[in-house]
Amino acid sequence: MSRYTRAQWGARYRAGFGDRSQNYPLNEVWGHHSVTAQLGPNATFAQECAQMRVLENIGQQRFKGGISYSFAFFPSGRAYHGLGASRIGAHTGGRNSISISFVFVGNYENTVPTAAALGAAAQCLKDLRAQGIIRQPRMNGGHRDAPGQPATACPGRHLHSRISVINSQAAGRVTQAPARPAPAPTTSSSSSNSNRHRSEQFTNWPQRALQVRDFPVGTYWLRLGDSGRVIPNEYRHALVLALHGAGYEYKEQSVQGAWRQIRDWLRGQHGYNTPTDRRSVARDFQRYLQRQGLYRGAIDGVLGPQSIWAITTWLNRIRSAYNS
């Protein structure tokens, strides 16, 4: 995955406070949010570059070392070198020389991070591990979890609750995002309960691989409330998780309840069950499939042969992961 360089976004000040590449591999990666302007997923590259320069100005004014963070992620899924991996920043007190910092640009106490941003962070972890920069492809936690930090809400409750999602993606595991809104920080006991619920949620996964011919011709597979008519009903398990990847979330523990939650949420966000609404959802999922490397067609909300092939491949990937 490519990340935009300091030259590309227009860095103007020094890059931190020295080199620490002799300390590789590093053991720590901490998450932050910038609490600056909240751009949307359709923001332009120019808008994001402007925000990178805002972050640089803040870091320069406070610490005289330019931008404070190693890497930055936006809702669009674009990623940027801040200081980069080798330079010491000013982000996590007492840990700056031994840790990488990820900043998600925006306020994630109030906003839910996009699947694209989470995926970009997960890919960055994979790349850093492959390059020998970090020992493990995982985030240790948020700013507030790092030893010796003052009381802080950083990286915001919505991002904090999704660090496990980033880590699971970086490790190559299929996982689900937490419900909206994100819960308060959990204890080790509640984390254990969450893992137990996850294993109990989806049972009786189909053994048969889904075929393209299972999709009725000329139908919208995401027609709200009609998922069972469009793909075999037993694949609703996989459908729910696939929708998670595209950013649609639920809090129910059963498949039926999860689908109702998704359907109701979509109705509330997009109006009601009209062809325009369905196409909007389809576009979101096409973008997600594109990020997975499965879809190369137009982002038009029309689920033609390329989309159906990509959807089939993705659902089978999830099915295989849970049957293994």
Question: What does this 3D model show about the protein?
Answer:
By secondary structure, the chain is α/β, with parallel strands linked by helices. It folds into 2 domains: 190 residues, Peptidoglycan recognition protein-like (Lysozyme-like), CATH 3.40.80; 112 residues, no CATH class. It has 11 helices and 5 strands. A 5-stranded mixed β-sheet has the order 3-2-4-1-5, covered by helices on one side. A hairpin with a 5-residue loop joins strand 2 and strand 3. The longest helix is centred in the first third of the chain and has 19 residues. About 16% of the residues have low confidence.
Could you give a quick summary of the protein structure above?
The chain has 324 residues and is an alpha/beta fold. The protein has helices spanning 6-9, 45-63, 115-130, 157-160, 163-170, 188-201, 227-230, 236-245, 255-270, 275-291, 305-323, and strands spanning 28-33, 71-73, 79-81, 99-104, 141-142.
Q: State Rg.
A: 21 Å
Q: What proportion of the residues is helical, as a percent range? A: 40-55%
- Output the helix-strand order: HEHEEEHEHHHHHHHH
* Sheet with most strands: strand arrangement: 3-2-4-1-5
Continuous helix count: 11
Q: Can you give the mean pLDDT?
A: 75
Overall number of strands: 5
Oligomer: single chain
CATH class of the largest domain: Alpha Beta
Shape: elongated
The CATH homologous superfamily of the largest domain is termed Peptidoglycan recognition protein-like
Profile the largest sheet: 5 strands, mixed
Task: Give the distance, in angstroms, between the N- and C-terminal Cα atoms.
Answer: 28 Å
CATH architecture of the largest domain: 3-Layer(aba) Sandwich
Counting helices, strands and paired strands, the structural category is alpha/beta
What fraction strand?
5-15%
Number of domains: 2
CATH overall fold name of the largest domain: Lysozyme-like
- Enumerate the spans where pLDDT stays under 50 for 5 or more consecutive residues: 173-203, 218-229, 268-275
